Structure formats: C-alpha cells, structure tokens
Amino acid sequence: MNYISIYSIEKILSTSLGPKGLDKLINRQYKVYNDEGDLEYRNEIIITNDGFTILKNIDIKDPILDILKNLSNSIDSKVGDGTTSGIILACQLIRNGQMLLTMNYHPNLVIKGYQLSMNKCKEVLDANALDFSVMENGDTKILDKIISTTLSSKILSNYLHSFTRICKDILSSLQKIPNRKHHCNYINYFKFLGGSISDTKLLKGTLYKVNSANSNWGIITHLNKNILSSEIQCKVISNCPLDFSDLLSKDLNKMVTMGRDYSQTFFNDKSQLEQTRITDYIKSIRNQEDSQPGYIIILSSCTSVSIQIQKMLSDNGIVIVYSLSEDKLLKCLDQSIVTLKQVEYNNEIYLQLEKKELDECISLILRGPTVYTIDEIQRSLNDAISILSLSTGSDKCKIISGGGSIEFELVLALEKYTQDLLKESIQNSKLCRVIKMFSQSLESIPKLLISNAGYDHVNLLDNIYSLHRKSTLEYRHYAIDLTSGLPTNMLDHGVIEILNSKKLSLQMIIDTVFSA
Per its UniProt record, what InterPro entries does this chain match (predicted)? Predict the structure, then answer.
C-alpha cells in the first residue's frame, strides 16, 4: 500500500493545528455547465485551517485518503471539533504502525498494542476528568470556557465574547426541545455578503424574502410602509385553506346538479361564492380571540390565491406570506404572536418574524466580507454547538483540561504501563515497543501546538514533563500557554475539553487505523 499520501496529509495539516496554526489557501477546480449548455471549468478559492474542510477539498484519488476523509467527516458530524488533531494522530499511528511492520512485527501484535494503549488512555481520561453541572446555581462560566476553547483556533477567535453569548442563547433554547438529537438541524442559516463578522446575530424566528418577482410583494403594497418601518405585533396562522379553487369548483358542481335556476338564486357567479367563503373565513379567524393584534400573517405554500382574495384579506389586516416549502417553520410559528419588521439586506427586502419565547425556530443571520468568511462562521458555530450538545447530554458532565495537558498525562501513564509489563515478563518487550509508538503519536499533538506558536518544543516539553511527574495533582493540568510560552494551568486558563468528545474521537481514530 502507498503511504505517501499519509505523509503529505500530515505535513499539510500539521502547520494548521491549534490557535496559532496557519490557514491554507486551496484553489479548487470544479466543472459546471454554462448558459449555453457547454461544460467549463471554474476555480474556487477556499481559505481555512479546518482539517475537515481541507481534506474535503483535496482532489487526490487514494484509498488511504478516502479512509481519512471518512474519519474527518465522522469527527466533524459526531463531535464537531478536533478534526485536525484527529487526522494528524491517525496519520502518526498509521505511519508508526507501518514502521513496526517493516521491522517484522506481526500485524496482530501491533493491533493488540494499540488496543491496550487505547484502553489505558480511557482509564487515564476518566481518572483526570472533573464533574460539573451545566446549570448549577446559574453559573455558566464553564460553558464560556468550553466555547472559547472551541472557537479560539477558528475565524471567530477575535469575537469570542459576542459569539459565546450567541452559542449560550442557542443552547438555552435547544435544551427546551424534547428528544433533540441533531442540534444543528434546528438552526436556519441566512447568509448575507457584506458587513462585518460582528454583525452576525441570532434571531428567534425567521426571514421571508419580499421582492417584485414573487407574491410577497403584495404585503408591501397592501400594508402601510410607515408601519413596516417599525415593529408591529402580528398573529401567525399556518396550514389554512387558502387554495379555495377546489372548494369553489366542488360547490358549483353541486349547484349545477340541483338546476341552473336554483344555483343562480343564491350565487350569480363564481366570484360571489368566492367572496362569501372568504368573508366567512375572515370572520372565523377574527373571532377566535377577543383581543388580537392589528395584523394577522398567514404562512402558506399556495401561490394560486387570486388578487381579489388578497385584497379582501389585506383590507381586514390579514396578509399572506408565501413559502415555497412546507418546512418546520410553518408549524413552529402557527398561532403565535410575533413581531413583524421589514428589514433590508444587500438591497433586498425581507420580512422578519420574531418571537423571543420561541425555541423550535432559531435562525442565524451570518454577515461577512467574503463568501468564504461566512462559510467559516457557519462551520465554527456548528462545531461549538456540537461540542455543547455533548456537554449538556445529562445533568452532570465531565470535563478535562485541554491545550495538550491531557496528552502529557497519557504519555506518562503509558510509560509507566510499559514498565509494569516489562516487570511481568521480558517477553513483553515487543508489545511495549508498540505501546511506545502509540505514546509517541500522542506526544506529537502538544509538540505541534508549541511549534506552531513559534517556540522550541524540546526544552518546553522537558519542563512540562517535570511538572507532571510531581505528586501534586494541580500540575496534571499544566501545558504551555501558547501566548506567553510559559507553563500554565489549562483549567484556570479556560482551556477545557469535554471528556465524552475526547473518548469518542480517540475511539473513531483507532477504528480507522485498524481498517487502514
């Protein structure tokens, strides 16, 4: 098997690891059909330091690369963060495994050594984990640190305060949704080019586009523009019978069977029947409650409503907002009192429907100077929300220190483990060699973090190991502060990881290495 692709991927990703990692510029070529139907090639520029995005856009036909892409996709979807470190660790394990095979180590022995190392790592992770309650005494400082750790190596690192608040608001809403599984599925993203990253905001509600090319333009013409320039309270109704054409035809057919003279006695034409039905419908929705806001918004996927119906509805303060898809928003907003406001993005008019108590309908309005910036914002927020979902899966959650500190503990634990195995029998020497290779792969993560920050990792690693070997429990959370270059307690520094996400990532990495 050709392992050149593994070395190449490891080299590409290694300089992108951590908050001081470098972005990669990818010139991706893709095929598209132009207006004349001819096939042509176009280039797309992508700037990112995310391992998942980098791997996804590297066009190399190689079975090992396909396996690593699947691992990257699994970590990104199941965990959310840690794709870069996960792929680097997998590459290190595969490379060290290949080295052992060239030294005539049996594949089963390599697998056994890796599995024993993995089991030992799980024990050490559990031993170093700390309990915390997500909402205990209303203190969410730990959540702030978790979000900060996730976003510190991404494009949002300079906007941690505002985006931490956005993530916490999203989490607060999602916790109220029963049987939630995939948190990101409850979020609607609206991307608008232009403005600053700081202009991104959270909206509990949704946006509906309004322009002269669709039927929503009638809202602007029928409602007072001065009112829409400010916020007004409206009631939302969905799943209403606005497509009266079938009902009208059925009623007229019944009258025809009863005789022409009889039908003309009550209704001279179809428009009179239509008018009667609309009048009854207006009375029914207006009489549902004693006190209602001045306007009622009808969400409908029907686009065949006549101008006469629209005018009758608008004269009674009832307007139609057309949605081309029957999505969950229609159900979430049904029978709700919302705030209606006309907003403008990129010279296009939108209706903003907002209900602050609404949890099932969450929208994020993303702003940025380029398309790639906006895409990176979405990816970063998805990562943070996925990590938070793991931290709030139960009332109690376990956390570990980040920044490479837990890797130091794992390396030292595996070192002691090999010593114990050798004391049991000298025949375990080969097995200990495999475990040592696993340990070296883990050590590569803090090494790269320190090197990417511009420091010499040789002396700094010795200092950190000397602290971790001390009996004081405080030092087990120490790693190098990548800003100052000094040994720092990562828990006090706010660099925190979720135990479940760490264990899940390691297990997926080991399963991938075994399949490679």
Answer: Chaperone_TCP-1, Cpn60/GroEL/TCP-1, GroEL-like_apical_dom_sf, GROEL-like_equatorial_sf, TCP-1-like_intermed_sf
